[in-house]
Structure formats: structure tokens, C-alpha cells
Amino acid sequence: MSDTRTWGLSGPYDRHDLRRNLGVLGRGPGDPAYRVAADGSVWRASRTPDGPGTLRIAVAGGEARAQAWGPGADWLLARVPAMLGEHDDAADFTPRHRLVHEAHRRHPGLRLIRTGLVLESLIPSVLEQKVTSDEAYRAWRILLTRHGEPAPGPADGMRVMPDPRAWTLIPSWEWHKAGVDAKRSSTILRAARVARRLEEAAGMDDTRATARLRAVPGIGPWTAAETLQRSNGSPDAVTVGDLHLPKIIGYALTGERGTDDAAMLDLLAPYAGHRHRACRLILLTGRTPPRRAPRFSVNDIRAL
């Protein structure tokens, strides 16, 4: 059995906006918890406070239509407007650079989404610490496939991530098979043990939420920002400590190479309160510095 609800959408919003806005929740190709169907609808498998649930969202004609299955269906449906970015308020956002102004004009359907689920975004963010995206995506796929559970409803092949206790029961050799080193797996285990306290961060402001997440050893500013951008829809949680983002922001806004975190934050200072929003718009322009060095090679810890 499924439940279905429909909402009218404010402002411009089409299926391309849906895919782009919710795309930050997908962790690479083949993510067992995220899928975009051929008709443009987005499917998500989540573990809610009420249990596992599967959600399908489609947008057409200024309306969003959502279906949900499983014990967590009602919880997911109640939060669809927030997930679509309907509560995202950009009224006081003022572009300060020509590039940002043009991106803001060209992408009126950009919304910052809010899932209300912290651990769901925290764990894959921890997996992405200090490794290539491909390594992190592979680890996420393996861990959900082997230790998650089938998603409710007709979402064939989709998986709901383990509950906090199940994360703590994953043996060390399973982490190793997934290519996850002891530092990252230990951080995930510590987070899982205080999952209830971490989930409370979904209802906090950025300062309190960041402090709550960073109280867990192994969770730094990069991981906290990447989590709050998704769980809380934070418009100001700018990612620092990233290998690529400062260089992209610096090149896009100044044409200069080699921008570091401090210089990036200086460039984004006029967007205080909306620094993450400004970064999203800049990334949408596709203006990136030409590549000079080869890509990082993948480190396979399973061979150690």
C-alpha cells in the first residue's frame, strides 16, 4: 500500500529543477538509496524516525506529486515541501558579482533542500573524507547492499541504510572490504552511538548544529557543512577544507588560480548568510580552472 499527496509549487520549478536540487542527495552512480527514473521522477530510500520508507517525487505543471511506502511513509510525505526547497528563503540574497547575478537569473528554480535527517547525510560525508569520490561512492554502495535492508514498495534493488545499531555491528573486515580505513569507520561508529543526539541537530541553527556534530571526534568543518547543507538546508554552511572548491570559486570570481580557504571566504564575505547558495550558483556556471595535473589515483586499502 502507498500513500499519495499533491502540492502546488511556488515560483518556477520543473522536473529539471527537481533532479538538480535533489541531486545533492545522490552519492554517485548506482547509489542504492537514490534513483532518477526515466520519467524524471526521483526515488529515495530513507530511514526515518518511524522506520524505513521509500519516496517517489515527480513534478509537472507547477505541482509536485509524491508517493511513499513503508513505516516511514507518513514522515517522508510530511516533509516533502521542505525537501523540495519550499521553505528555502532567498529573499535577502543579493548577487555581488556579475557571474553570480547571471547564474541567479538563469536558474530561478534552484532551491536548497532540507531532509531533516542528519545521519543519512553524515555517514556518506564521512566516507568521502580524504578519498576520491569514486572510492567513497563504492564504499557507500557496498555497505548499503550488504548491511542495509530492501526498500519498501516497488523500488526494486533500492536499499535503506542500516539503523544506528546495525552500523555498530559491522565487523572490521567488512569495512576493509568496502575500502574504508579505520579512521573513517571509527568516526561512523562514534556517530552511530550518539545518533539520537546528532539527529537533534536538524532542528538547530547553524552554530548549534555545527557544534553538535563537531563534538564527535573525526567530524570536522568539512563534514559538518556537507551534512547541514542537506539535512538542514543551510544557505550559509560553506564547505571549507575541500580540495577543489576554493580553486573553483577563486577562478570563477577573479580568474586567478590557487585560491585557498581563507581567500575563498574573503570572496564570499559579501554573501554572509547565503555563502553556500552563492557557491551552488557559481558551480552551476561550469566556470572552472583548466586542469593541469593528473587526477588522483585510487588507493585500494583492500590490498594492504
Explain briefly what this protein structure is.
With 304 residues, the protein is of the alpha+beta class.
What strand order characterises the main sheet? 1-5-4-3-2
Distance between the termini: 47 Å
Spell the H/E element sequence. Answer: EHEEEEHHHHHEEHHHHHHHHH
Helical stretch count?
15
Output the radius of gyration.
19 Å
Mean pLDDT: 95
Number of strands: 7
CATH domain fold name of the domain at 119-231 = Endonuclease III, domain 1
Biggest sheet, in brief? Answer: 5 strands, antiparallel
The low-pLDDT segments are: none
Shape assignment: globular
Helix-residue proportion: 40-55%
Q: Proportion of β residues? A: 5-15%
- Helix- and strand-based class? alpha+beta
What's the architecture of the domain at 119-231, going by CATH? Orthogonal Bundle
Question: What's the name of the CATH homologous superfamily of the domain at 119-231?
Answer: Hypothetical protein, domain 2
What is the CATH class of the domain at 119-231? Mainly Alpha
